[in-house]
Amino acid sequence: MTDDQGYGDLACHGNPVIQTPNLDKLHAESIRLTDYHVSPFCTPTRAALMTGRYPARTGAYRTSSGRSNLHHDEVTMASYFADAGYRTGLIAKWHLGDNAPCRPQDRGFQEVLWHKGGGIGQAPDFWMNDQFDDVYERNGKYEKFEGYATDVWFRESMAFVERNQKNPFFLYLATNAPHSPYKVPEKWAAPYRDKVKWKSGAEFYGMITNLDHNVGLLRKKLDQLGLAENTIFIFTTDNGTAKGRGGPGAEEGNFRGFNAGMFGQKSTIWEGGHRVPFFIHWPKGGLVGGEDRGNLSAHLDVLPTLAELCRLKLDPNRYLDGTSFAGHLKNAKAKPHRDYLVVQLHGGTRFSQKEGPWVMSCVIEGQWRLLEGKALYDVSKDLMQRHDISSKHPEVVARLRKLYEAFWESVSPRMTPVCLDLGNPAENPTLLCSQDWRLKTGNPPWNFAEINQYKKITGPWHVSVTQPGRYRFTLLQFPKEAGKPLRAVRAKVKIAGKEAARKIAKGAHSVDFELELPKGETTLETFLYTEKNEVGGAYFTEVERL
Hints:
Blueprint: H1 21-29, E1 31-33, E2 36-37, H2 42-51, H3 55-58, H4 77-83, E3 87-93, E4 111-115, E5 135-138, E6 141-144, H5 149-163, E7 169-174, H6 186-189, H7 201-224, E8 233-236, H8 271-274, E9 278-281, E10 291-293, E11 297-298, H9 302-310, H10 326-330, E12 341-344, E13 361-365, E14 368-371, E15 375-378, H11 394-411, E16 420-422, E17 430-433, H12 448-451, E18 461-465, E19 469-476, E20 490-495, E21 498-503, E22 511-517, E23 520-529, E24 535-536, E25 540-545
Parallel strand pairs: 1-10, 2-11, 3-4, 3-7, 16-18
Antiparallel strand pairs: 1-9, 4-5, 5-6, 8-9, 12-13, 13-14, 14-15, 17-25, 18-23, 19-22, 19-25, 20-21, 20-23, 23-24
């Protein structure tokens, strides 16, 4: 699963500029879902894919602000495969929790190589990672890697496959590319310099072409190992394009991007924000031949589909919003498995709006798209969604509104805070990042561009003290590796009804507190005061049970 690559960011989907020969070949050999939908951005798509449940139901429905962690009772695809005897691996991006018990190794993955946060170089990631010769975490320990990030991910994926070739395996390779920051070796961007003129466009397309090259290497490795016939190989993406929103086509000499005739891109509820590619190739299972399947399907459906194809036993007491499209893959005339789907960007545009019903929502049924419960579009006739025809079809609007109301009543009770563990033996100490402050509106500092502004803001981490005892809190504005002194003169910490404050020594890089804590769920807040009494939080806080 690639990151921020849209439906139109492939040559096989009509893009006249981009070069994707290996994905084009996969497209030509696969069964393709042409009406497959995800969430409009990173975390919720990953939550739905892993659990088969609506993102709001899982607790992981935004990319930050304490809303990107799975509820502890969620069961992932990896856990089901592990229970069935598969060797499970995650490589690259997780974005469903950076601290125990929400990390991939806590959620069914036996082998893990990943960067933290939503992108390489974001605040939770290892300090100074820039996609070249980075430090990533492998199975709980940081390790230095040589080369460009996407090349590393695929190189390690091929090693995982080779290591596990004699056993059934499940590999979730979720690249950071082509998510920002848009960096790639120049040889991949160079072919686009004269054709793609918008900012970072050549790099964006270059990242995709590099990724395409690596897809070819991975498929070649599977073939060399004799595994290609009986390996289910899926290619998909997590949301609409992040670069080069296009209309129906591209005028010669004025290329502005291509989105296969759809309007919208990442973080929108227009068609181009959530309809994405899905190719599945499995020769032994008959999933070959370059055929399209046009029935509505979604990220929610992948878990039950793979469970049916691989004969996994799912928990019968675990409610799934997804339904299997295995029958549809094998028979184009099979009865549709899904009648409708709700897509919602919970939190609204730029997350400034209140989390609530209708905001940034889209109900999908057949050709109909109902946006925010008001505007109605028929994408079979108006793929660019220029004409609101709600007044002509009030009965359709009423029906789709009822579907949404039932959806909201079902999922909204689960949109509650997810706690991160303190004192968990699996991760003690644990390093908390401001990306997980749970704010009521807006986003906390989630990348170093914002942290470098020393934003005067703080918020609560929702935490669970797993064991009573004495805990040390180390407050920082940058990771220890940065070696930067605090820009503050005094500090305060609040947790579990307790509060402590102290002055900060001049030039100190951090400030420590020790407190006796009872077991239980609570909130942790930190405060760093300047000489002018301006206050912001400790963007990083290390907590250790002593």
